[in-house]
Amino acid sequence: MLAKLRALFIIDPLIIICTIAYGSVNLVVSLFETTGRLQVAIARAWARMLLRVSFVGMKVEGLEKIDPNGSYVFVANHLSYMDTPCILAAIPVQFRFMAKKGLFSIPFLGYHLSRAGHIAVPRDNPREAIKAMVEAGKMIRERGISVLIFPEGGRAPDAKLQAFREGAFYIAINSGVPVVPVALAGTEKVLPFGSGTVSPGRVVMRIGDPIPTEGMTTKDRGALALQMHEAVYELLKDTDLVDAKEAVAAGV
Q1: Which end of the chain is more exposed for a tag (fewer CB within 10 A), N or C?
Q2: Closest among 174, 191, 184 to 80, alpha carbons compared
Q3: In whole angstroms, what is the distance from residue 98 CA to residue 149 CA?
Q4: pLDDT tens digits for 89-112?
Q5: What pTM value is reported for the model?
């Protein structure tokens, strides 16, 4: 009961205040900064502050495998709405996100996403989805940025690793950049599926070895999806927050 009261009257209000403050600054910056880089820097500061005021501790392993100036497609398991802030706070690259198109229709948030250069993905229109993937590949090549994608296609309500869709790997092969597996554990306890309240806790993030895509064609995307699925599954093993039996990999 005490934990719920602390979340309701301390953590949640602090999160709202931080989000309004940083979001307002980002909105002003977006009016004159067109590359999105400064906006990402502000968003990263927001993510780190969000973790602090939520009393969420994070252990990160494998960060030395990432070149801060490099371009990658990061693929991660998706357990909670806290996944994105955790990745944004921990990995120091220029991120853009593939997000469902509906988010871009939300006032304030949608404007920020568009101005920062994030990419809308329509889930019910395959042709438009392919156009979005092509746009993402072009953005990576021309602007030297990285893209974060949750290839399960949505949050897993039972915390089990679901099959990976192939879109992320189409983008990686099309842009010729490495794919990086990222495993998250603990975010589903900090902000459970279907909950609007953040609780203090501990998160573990493991970053795997980047997998080159040079020499691959888009026909290889299925095999690459299976390879990366297994890589994320292996990263999830032996974390002190995750029982490997609870991370049953579909098709592995």
Answers
A1: N
A2: 191
A3: 6
A4: 999 999 888 777 776 776 666 666
A5: 0.87
